[in-house]
Amino acid sequence: MYEVPDQPHYVILKEGTNQGKLALTDQLGFSYSLKDKSKKTFTWRCVHRPSYAPPCNAKVKQRITEGVDFAEIYDQADFTFVPPSFSDPHYHIAKDGIHKQKEVMRDAKKAAMEEKFKASRQIVMAEL
């Protein structure tokens, strides 16, 4: 039986966005894109930015160690959730399974580039 996690477990996905950039998921159903870099921290911003409503301002800060690839080697203690100024951390609902969806989409896109004449349904079903 599937149980929804109550604590975030952050995972960085290489080529996790449509543009092939890094993505961060928390396995609670929220996804983040890289917003800002400094020498000691990276700031990730929630990707929920609809045209019909104000964007979600939830952020996650990741502490980085100098000389270490932050996308490969990281600890859960490196991440700190920064809620927006109002009471709810996210004003939108979570997308359950978004971390797996991003992995499947990334792998399906790679397979589609290698096998251009294969039906898209076959590619996606093979990834599942």
Give a description of the structure.
The chain has 128 residues and is of the alpha+beta class. It has a domain at 11-95: Single Sheet (N-terminal domain of TfIIb), CATH 2.20.25. The protein has helices at residues 98-114, 120-127, and strands at 11-13, 23-25, 31-37, 41-46, 59-63, 79-82. Strands 1-2-3-4-5-6 form a six-stranded antiparallel beta sheet, covered by helices on one side. 15% of the residues are buried.
Which SSEs are present, and which pair or pack?
Blueprint: E1 11-13, E2 23-25, E3 31-37, E4 41-46, E5 59-63, E6 79-82, H1 98-114, H2 120-127
Antiparallel strand pairs: 1-2, 2-3, 3-4, 4-5, 5-6
Helix pairs in contact: 1-2
